[in-house]
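Q&A log
Question type: sequence-to-structure
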Amino acid sequence: MNGRLIRVLHVIVDLEAGGAERALVNLVTRNEAPDVEHHVLCLRLGGFYEGAVRKAGVPLHIAGGEGVRALPGWIAAVRRAVAEIEPDVLQGWMYYANLVCHAALRFPWPRLRRRPKLVWGIRCSDMDLDRYPKNLRRAVRLGARWSGSVAAIVANSHAGRDVHVAAGYAAERFEVIPNGFDADAFRPDPSRRAAAREALGEADDARFVALTVARIDPMKDYDTLAAAARTLPEVRFVAAGLETERLDGPANLTGLGRRPDVDLLLQGADCLVSSSAYGEGMSNAIGEAMACGLPVVATDVGDAARMLAPGPDGEPAGLVVPPRDPAALAESVRALADDPEGGRAMGAEGRRRVETVYSLAACDRHYAELYRRVTA
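Response status: OK
Response body:
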């Protein structure tokens, strides 16, 4: 510890339900570093996690506005917040917020008495940018051009770092800080099993339930999940996430929509399935399932293989399959359904890893060390 308070202003587009948003909320609401003070600025709106941030007493500012026309107002809002709060660190979360922070520090007004160190956040890996708006592609290219001028770039995955370095981002600026997971909120709890099965639409334990926690988005590849489900009519597939209630798939695939009780749903599932085709950095859904002692079937995207690979004792925390391969995905789900004892061993190994490697405390510690280093 450097003996003085380090004030950090985090800038993010919004606090809607998502992996980056969850990671930010975990960091600022559970802050265990006495020398770090967190503030949050949402560019667009508060959203799903706004209440949790306010309840924790973390100062929250909302700029408001939508789209490209809001950009000048966002830059001005960051400038005003920097002038008012005088943070030591200005941290962007994801491409748009990164660039807004960069632009805000370049503008000459209002005059800043203290210029904070700029830290960027990268949360994805090999995005298929052709499936997203042109503005996102422009943001990625601008990020590569300006990346050498920031104090640090935090990637939550080794895959994300490698992809961005290959795209021209400054390699020497990167720091990999894996996501941390709440091992108290997400833990094995057999006492909740009956209620969880009911929430999943299963009255008993007769059927094997494979749970997916992901919004509807091209990168999540629900087409592959649906194709795998068609070949396993004896398995119940359940999806929880934004707009999953609109899923059009086989009868054994049910979408529940966005749910606030994912911790409960995980207690009723028999495995977690992540069918992403690309883009993941470090999946929160995989980590939270591991914390609950669930075996995982995941595509080899982002750091999934690193999270689930066999450990020193040879025990994996799950099974990894190629992306866009419904047959391989179905085969691995079937393998877990046919070997419950093996699945329990994988789940126990996953829980051990969350407690020892991917804990919230470890994540908080890594961020605090980064802030101390860039402000030293």
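Response note: The mean pLDDT is 94.
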